[in-house]
Specification:
The complex is a heterodimer.
Chain A lengths: L7 H6 L1 H5 L5 H13 L1 H28 L4 H14 L3
Chain B lengths: L11 H12 L3 H23 L2 H18 L9 H19 L39 H13 L2 H12 L4 H8 L3 H24 L4
Classes of the chains: A mainly alpha, B mainly alpha.
Chain lengths: ~90, ~210
């Protein structure tokens, strides 16, 4: 049995499901058959993955840099709590 | 598993004792909770709201909501995870009430196809030696600015799923949309972000 031929459009449409391992085995086989003959889709998949990675890395690095909490903000939160606390 | 779940694990008995003190209204316990979580949560609010003032307001609102609701916290999740969800929800509410800025259409950033399903103009491949954003401020700034160019409905989903690492179901619940809509928006957001970053990594950007 040979896998059905998938178009580039179909492959790109199901990229997220492929990466999340949500495709049925026969769909995955069609996907991988297409990738074995289409360098453009191999490239698209690689850059899609790279995009996710860059987003995660850039914002995680930013969070580490900014993780200092201004003391006055902590003070303001606790003061607001004291004002709103019953009694 | 979300980002909040990866924080160093407090001992269950420590968390339980903190919770009891919070429920008893112990001021020192509130201070402890804020000190232990405010930094990480301020970073979440900054990622979502982009404005320092809004992020600080959201953090303060979120802690006040958490203090009021502490009696209803069931202890099924960790306190840090619970606070993370409250901050995200507060930020989403702020985003909804904030005036909408003019947004670019996402359609122009999605791949185009011929009628036979082949992609129109796949473009040149990306350079292989892209600097790591952890080390390169330039890449970090570029990625951040590109995420912020996405229309808000796509940006929110990308931030919640890929950056805050919430599940599809949790994201759907917080945004009050269907799980399948989350999946569609996430895929389109990633494709659009890829298109925005592409010219910088193929050498095509001016």
């Amino acid at each position: 049995m040979t896998a059905r031929k998938l178009s580039c459009r179909e492959l790109i449409e199901f990229l997220a499901e492929y990466l999340d391992d949500e495709l049925a085995p026969e769909e995955r086989a069609e996907f991988e058959t297409h990738l074995s003959v289409c360098p453009y889709c191999v490239d698209y998949l690689a850059t899609y993955r790279k995009t996710i990675h860059l987003g995660k890395q850039a914002l995680a690095a930013e969070a580490e840099i900014l993780e200092e909490v201004p003391a006055e903000l902590v003070g303001a939160i606790l003061a607001a709590r004291s004002r709103s606390a019953p009694g | 598993m979300s980002r909040a779940d990866r924080e160093p694990e407090p001992k269950p008995q420590d968390e339980q004792s903190l919770l009891l003190r919070l429920r008893a209204g112990d001021q020192a316990a509130f201070a402890e909770l804020v000190q232990a979580n405010a930094g990480r949560l301020l970073a979440v609010a900054r990622r979502m709201l982009r404005s320092e003032d809004d992020a600080r307001d959201a953090l303060q609102d979120a802690f006040l909501q958490a203090f009021r609701a502490i009696g209803r916290f069931e202890g099924g999740a960790r306190l840090s995870t619970w606070l993370h969800r409250i901050v995200i929800n507060t930020c989403l509410m702020k985003l909804r009430t904030r005036g909408r800025k003019p947004e670019e259409s996402i359609e122009v950033l999605l791949p185009k196809f011929y009628s036979d399903g082949h992609r129109i103009d796949p473009g040149p491949p990306w350079r292989t030696e892209i600097p790591d954003p952890v080390e390169s401020r330039e890449v970090r700034t570029l990625v951040r600015a590109s995420i912020d160019r996405l229309p808000e409905i796509y940006r929110s989903v990308l931030l919640l799923r890929d950056i805050e690492e919430l599940s599809t179901e949790e994201t759907a619940l917080l945004l009050d949309i269907k799980a399948n809509t989350v999946k569609v928006r996430l895929h389109r957001a990633r494709q659009a972000l890829r298109a925005l970053l592409g010219p910088h990594f193929t050498g095509e950007a001016a």
